[in-house]
Design brief:
Length: about 350
């Protein structure tokens, strides 16, 4: 039975070649996925995604793999850069396809509001019906009387003008009234226009994610709203931001690699305790290295706490799921060793 599953057919050729090269290095080093995770510090589930083409490995994981397999990192990172561009192009094509679908849906919705059908009154007006004579009753536009008969109002006297003859009381030709039903048609068209504007605004909000009030992530162009976990324009491979990252694996969500820094460090016995922070994702997590079975780590931000521990013999690294933070200072990590020794970051 082959060790590796076939890579997805829809993968870009450049990405497929890169994933194949990663598999060769792992095979050449005689490493299991668990051993690879232990030696590189990246989660086992993350490496499974990288090696099966479901997620592009971050640059940090690629460099770590080169180190543990005695491979020149320059050549491997060059291949990674080409694969990363191909991955970004694939995601851009997907985004453009989804945008085109949304625009098409918005246009279809707008197309439902056409001009109202012609009524008998407007048809008569279009057929050249003679205007009413001055002094005759005038129909009230847009108001229907009993049995479909429009109510009328008596003619109103007009002010004297140049067409009125002195001393005779006769008047010049009266201005023909507007065709019946014109007010109703204008009102219908106005309402259709209002509805159309509302649909356009809704379509714009849908396309932009409605995140105009989010906090801008300095340095990467991402817009993040930590309170709701929504995001827009995140870098390729990043799958969450803010509250949407709480309780999730940093590697699986693309928040590690080049996007993470060590914000706080403290030694607890022979173990190193860290607060890891990703500004792009608006999240932090705790990590212990040089640890042993039975050691545990937890991270707290406000009232939220996430925990991680080492349960397998031979593992030396453990980390917690993420918690949403606005900055690294909001997160505090603590370690409890199997020996009973404890320690926390400030």
């Amino acid at each position: 039975m082959p060790r590796w599953k076939a890579l997805p057919d829809e993968l870009d050729p450049q990405v497929k070649e890169f994933a194949t090269q990663l598999r060769r290095l792992v095979d050449r080093g005689g490493l299991s996925v668990a051993a690879l995770s232990d030696r590189t510090g990246y989660a086992k589930t993350s490496w499974e995604r990288y090696l099966n083409g479901r997620l592009l490995a971050p640059k940090g994981a690629v460099v770590a793999l080169a180190e543990v397999t005695d491979t020149d990192p320059v050549h491997l990172t060059t291949m990674w850069e080409l694969a990363e561009r191909a991955w970004s192009r694939s995601e851009m094509r997907h985004d453009m396809t989804m945008e085109a679908i949304r625009i098409s849906q918005a246009r279809a919705a707008l197309g439902e509001f056409g001009a109202p059908p012609a009524t008998s009154a407007t048809a008569a007006a279009a057929g050249g019906k003679a205007p009413r004579r001055a002094g005759s009753a005038v129909a009230m536009p847009g108001i229907a009387g009993p049995a479909g008969v429009s109510p009328t109002i008596p003619p109103q006297p007009t002010a004297p003008d140049a067409n009125r003859r002195e001393g005779t009381g006769s008047r010049g030709p009266a201005t023909p009234p507007a065709p019946p039903g014109g007010g109703r048609r204008r009102l219908t068209m106005f309402l259709a226009g209002v509805v159309g504007v509302v649909v356009v605004i809704a379509a714009v909000l849908l396309l932009t994610g409605g995140d105009g009030g989010g906090k801008k992530n300095q340095g990467n162009g991402a817009s993040v709203t930590p309170s709701t976990g929504t995001s827009s324009h995140l870098p390729a491979g990043v799958k969450c931001a803010g509250a949407g990252c709480t309780g999730k694996d940093a590697e699986a969500m693309g928040c590690s690699g080049d996007l993470v820094t060590t914000a706080k460090t403290v030694a607890v016995g022979a173990t190193t305790l860290e607060v890891r922070y990703s500004r792009t994702c608006g999240a932090a997590w705790g990590r212990i290295t040089g640890a042993a079975r039975g050691d545990s780590v937890r991270v707290t931000a406000g009232t939220t706490t996430e925990r991680g521990s080492i349960t397998a013999t031979g593992d030396t690294i453990a980390y917690t799921p993420m918690v949403a933070v606005r900055d690294a200072a909001q997160a505090k990590a603590c370690a409890t060793l199997a020996s009973g020794q404890q320690g926390c970051t400030t």
